[in-house]
Prior knowledge:
Blueprint: E1 4-6, E2 9-11, E3 18-22, H1 31-44, E4 48-53, H2 56-59, H3 82-89, H4 93-105, E5 109-114, H5 117-125, E6 131-133, H6 141-148, E7 154-157, H7 163-175, E8 181-186, H8 201-209, E9 212-217, H9 223-230, E10 235-239, H10 257-274, E11 294-297, E12 312-315, H11 326-329
Parallel strand pairs: 3-4, 3-10, 4-5, 6-7, 7-8, 8-9, 9-10
Antiparallel strand pairs: 1-2, 11-12
Amino acid sequence: MDEIKLGGRSIGEAFCPFIIAELSGNHSQQIDLAIAMVEAAAKAGAHAIKLQTFTADSMTLDVDNEHFVIQEKDSLWQGQSLHALYQKAATPYAWHQPLFDKAKSLGMLAFSSPFDEQAVDFLDGLDVPCFKIASFELTDLPLIRKAASKKKPLIMSTGMASLTEIEQAVSVAKQAGCEEIILLKCTSTYPSEPTQSNILTIPHLRDAFGCQVGLSDHTAGVGVSVAAVALGATVIEKHFVLDRHAGGVDAAFSLEADELASLVVETKRAHQALGQVKYGGTEAEEKSKQYRRSIYVSEDIKQGQALTKDNIRIVRPAYGLAPKNWDKVLGKVAKQSLVKGTPLDWPMFE
C-alpha cells in the first residue's frame, strides 16, 4: 500500500516518517502535566500523541496471587500487582477529550490504544482518526475485530507475535472491513536493547503483508529509530516524558522533549537521504567535478622537449587531460613551449 491518510496526513514511503509521542502513564495522574506533555510534544515536532484507554478493572483482576504480581527481577515494575500498576498508569476517560482537543489545536493528530471493546466504542465516539493495538493485545482477536469494524486505519504492534499470529491478526482485521493496516516492529521489553531490536524484520514485514510498516521503539536514544527509517519504516512510535528523573511509569525508556525533537529531525534526514539508486554524481555535485585530477605541466617545457615525469604531473584541478591518458602522453614531444601550470591538451604535443 503506497499511502494511508490519517486525519488528512499522508503516511507512506514518499513522505517523511510519521512520529507518534506515546504519553502512556507518564502524566503521573496529573492533568496539568499531561497537557504540558502534549504542548511539549507539539513543540518538538511530533505529528501525533497517543494515549492508552483502559481502567485497571478492564485490564486485569484485583487479585494478589503470584499470577497477578510481576515476578521478573529485571522488570521496572518487579513486585507490583498488575491491578495497582494499571491504576497508576491509566489515563482517566474524562481526560481524553481535553487532551485530544489540545493536540488538535496545536496541529497534531490524537488517538489511543483501546484495551477492551468498550474502549473502542468510547474512542470512536471521540472521532479518533485510527486505532492502535498494543503488542500484548495482538492475540486478542475479538478486540481487533471490534476496532477494525469501525472502518478506520489500524496500527498494530507485533511485539512477541509469531508470523502466524500476525497473519491471524491481519486476516481478522481485513475480514472485519479494515484495509488500511500499519504494522509496527516492536520488542516488548521495557527498556529494550538495540541488540534485541532485529529491525531487519521491517522490510520483511512490509513484503510479507503488503502494508505500511514502522517501529514501536523502547530503546534509549534515537539511533534505532533512525536506522529503522533507512529500512523502510514510515511510522515511529516513542514513549515520551517531560523529565525522566521526575518519574513516571515508563520514564526510564521514554524520550525527553529535546530528544523527541532530535528524533523528528534525524528521522526526517534519514528519509531524505534515501533518494534513489544513482551513480555519476548529482546535479549539486556538477561543479565539484572541476576538482578532480588531470595532467598539468609541472615545469616549463621548451618546444621539442619530451614530456616526462619531471615536467608533467597529475594534480588537481581537472582542466587538463584525464589521468587515464598518462601512459599515452609520457615521452611525447612538445610542439610548442609550455609554461608551468598549463593544463595539458592533445594539440600541444606530437
